[in-house]
Design brief:
This protein has 504 residues and is α+β, with helices and mostly antiparallel strands. It has helices spanning 42-52, 87-91, 138-147, 158-167, 173-181, 225-231, 272-277, 289-303, 319-329, 352-362, 367-370, 386-397, 429-432, 435-442, 452-458, 474-477, 485-503, and strands at 28-29, 31-37, 60-66, 71-77, 97-103, 118-122, 125-135, 186-194, 197-202, 211-215, 218-222, 234-238, 244-248, 257-259, 283-284, 287-288, 310-313, 337-339, 363-365, 374-379, 402-407, 420-421, 446-449. It contains 17 helices and 23 strands. It has a 7-stranded antiparallel sheet with strand order 4-3-5-2-11-10-12, covered by helices on one side. It has a 6-stranded antiparallel sheet with strand order 6-7-8-9-13-14. Strands 17-20-21-23 form a 4-stranded parallel sheet, with helices on both faces.
Length: 504
């Protein structure tokens, strides 16, 4: 993930005239990674894989390849399509080893120097890295590295890893890489390329996903299994939490090595991958995302039933949960909201009147269906609450008799510091209001959220474990599984500044 280190706890909501009315009210994954070793068309395969991961990052994309002698890179702002669909672009990325990255936007610097994979010439040779996640002590490490003479070329937390590798005193590149990883906190799924081979690894808690596949003799790593499907590869398994897999260039299957340098740690993969981030047709840590989301909807119907005529999803993320809710409750599933797929995120709306029309450009009520009916809307989450407010209002204007809302996750009360684009905590509706206050804010007839234990039940667990929970659910519970060094230091500094002001 690419994050600016000079902006802790960012508000990712850009100018009103640039953002679509619905787009500031979702949690957004920041990155997707894809790597191939041992394929004659490695760069073309990476481009296809990144297409499948486009939902994880839509601001920028990059691919780096190795042809046996030199590294080649192409990085660009915008979508994969348009940047990597030209033959001459792929031809300029020769070699049978390549990795790529898609990135989501933040309010930080969005220049080309921050687009991954990042590349550097080390004493051991070229080193490229693509990162999904967030290093929660990156600022502290960066300050220490700068004091020791490091010169940074980007504002990315990922560059910290490169400098830690470069300055390590260990002899082999692998040992230097492990040494670097042992100094970082937070979440990371990494794909690295060197002249010797490809390295793929997950942080000890496995917060961010990474899977391994095969296509013929080629070894493939990706953020989600759907990317393997798109290139025609077979899914082998998830890279395990704390596992580091080394694929030497030109390696046969028996030459691929697995290392576990971090010891035994209870895994805490991100639970929101199942709720929202991953594509429904992906497999995450052995579970079908689509099946889990249907089970979430069914559990929601058990916990929070309501007498209505129709179950209506908020497109598109609410669809699987709504199907589960309908099947469990016996209430018909209907498409009461029709979504246009042709409105971009940066649709410019000049003036307030036209800006409000932007809601109907992306989502429009199916009036003939819902007029005079009692409906329950199913959505995956409530972040700021603005989307839910507009949707409820749209349903009422279309003539709905009653509008109820059910959310297929617990209330999002805390910010994420592990690679998810979250508003600062003060802007989360569930942080500011209780459920009754939230219901009043969105003007719904009733509002209910899935319980935290209900979410775990949908994932096949009896309940959330009190000690060492099975997943990272910090956005719901505030139970962060790692230290948050940069965040804590910023908060302490802010408090001291306030104290100073009072004394003066």
């Amino acid at each position: 993930m690419l994050t600016t280190l000079d902006h802790i706890g960012p508000d990712h909501n850009g100018p009103d005239y640039l953002a679509h009315p619905f787009d500031d009210d979702k949690l957004r994954e920041e990155c997707g990674v894809f790597g191939v070793s041992g394929a004659s068309t490695a760069s073309a395969m990476v481009a296809l894989g990144l297409h499948a991961l486009q939902h994880r990052g839509q601001e920028a994309a990059g691919i780096t390849s190795w042809d046996g002698h030199d590294f080649h890179s192409h990085r660009a702002m915008g979508h994969v399509a348009g940047n990597f669909d030209k033959d001459e672009t792929i031809r300029a990325l020769p070699g049978d080893v390549a990795c790529g990255h898609v990135r989501y936007s933040t309010t930080g610097e969005t220049s080309l120097r921050n687009v991954q994979p990042l590349y550097a010439e080390l004493s051991s040779g070229g080193f490229a890295v693509a990162h999904n996640g967030n290093i929660s002590n990156a600022m502290k490490l960066r300050h220490e590295l700068v004091r020791r003479g490091s010169i940074f070329q980007s504002t990315s937390d990922t560059e910290v890893i490169i400098h830690l590798v470069a300055t390590s005193s260990y002899r082999t590149l692998l040992d230097r890489f492990i040494d670097a990883l042992k100094q970082v906190e937070g979440a990371y799924s990494l794909i690295c390329m060197t002249a010797e081979g490809m390295i793929a690894c997950r942080d000890p808690l496995g917060i961010r996903p990474l899977v391994m596949g095969r296509l013929g003799d080629a070894v493939i790593f990706a953020s989600e299994t759907v990317a393997l499907d798109v290139v025609g590869a077979d899914y082998i398994r998830s890279v395990e939490p704390g596992e580091l897999i080394v694929v030497p260039n030109g390696a046969s299957a028996d030459q691929i090595r697995s290392h576990r340098p971090f010891g035994e740690v209870s895994a805490r993969p991100c639970i929101f991958e199942h709720v929202y981030f991953s594509r429904p047709d992906s497999i995450v840590d052995g579970s079908s995302v689509y099946s889990v989301r249907k089970a979430i909807g069914a559990q929601l119907a058990i916990e929070d039933p309501v007498e209505v005529d129709y179950v209506i999803p908020v497109p598109d993320s609410g669809v699987p949960a709504a199907i589960g809710y309908a099947q469990q409750s016996g209430i018909p599933f209907e498409l009461g909201i029709i979504r246009s797929h042709y409105i971009g995120r940066t649709f410019i709306q000049p003036g307030d009147k036209v800006r409000h029309l932007g809601v109907k450009l992306k989502h429009n009520a199916n009036r003939a269906l819902i007029e005079g009916k009692r409906i329950v809307l199913i959505d995956d989450s409530i972040v700021r609450g603005t989307t839910s407010l507009k949707i409820v209002q749209m349903m009422r204007e279309a003539g709905a008799k009653e509008v109820h809302m059910r959310i297929a996750s617990p209330p999002t009360r805390h910010s994420c510091f592990y690679g998810v684009d979250t508003p600062e905590r003060s802007k989360l509706l569930a942080h500011k209001l209780d459920i009754a206050g939230m219901r009043e804010f969105i003007h719904a007839d009733s509002l209910a959220f899935l319980s935290i234990d209900g979410l775990y039940k949908a994932l096949g667990e009896a309940k959330r474990a009190d000690i060492r929970p099975q997943y990272c659910d910090a956005c719901f519970t505030g139970d962060y599984p790692t230290s948050l060094t940069d965040q804590d230091e910023t908060e302490v500094r802010d408090q001291l500044e306030l104290l100073s002001e009072r004394v003066v």
